Amino acid sequence: MKNICREFSPTCTKMSQSPIKTILIPSLLTAGVVFGLSVTAVTNYNTLPSSEMPQELALKEQYRNIAVRNIGLCILGSALSGLLVAGGIRSIQNSHKKAKQKQDSMSGLIAEFLSTRPE
Question: What keywords appear on the UniProt entry (predicted)?
Fold first, then answer.
């Protein structure tokens, strides 16, 4: 029964892979994509004129303060998305592991019942 599970079920083979392939790479990819998309969404494409007037310097400083806050929010959002993906993968793996344990215990009980049954 165990060989059939390993041959035909993708969840059984996926659980035996290393945590780097199953958890770390998907969560890092998700965090990178979320960070890239959010940074491009909050980037301000307005360019200031080349002459440096005092009002424009103040406006540049204001843009810099907004950009720093937005980049911080992008970092926070991407880190949280990576953690959520990693947590989701771990919970799916744990549920598959519990289901396999339950299946193994049930097959053991059935085998025990069939071996003790009078013919």
Answer: Membrane, Transmembrane, Transmembrane helix
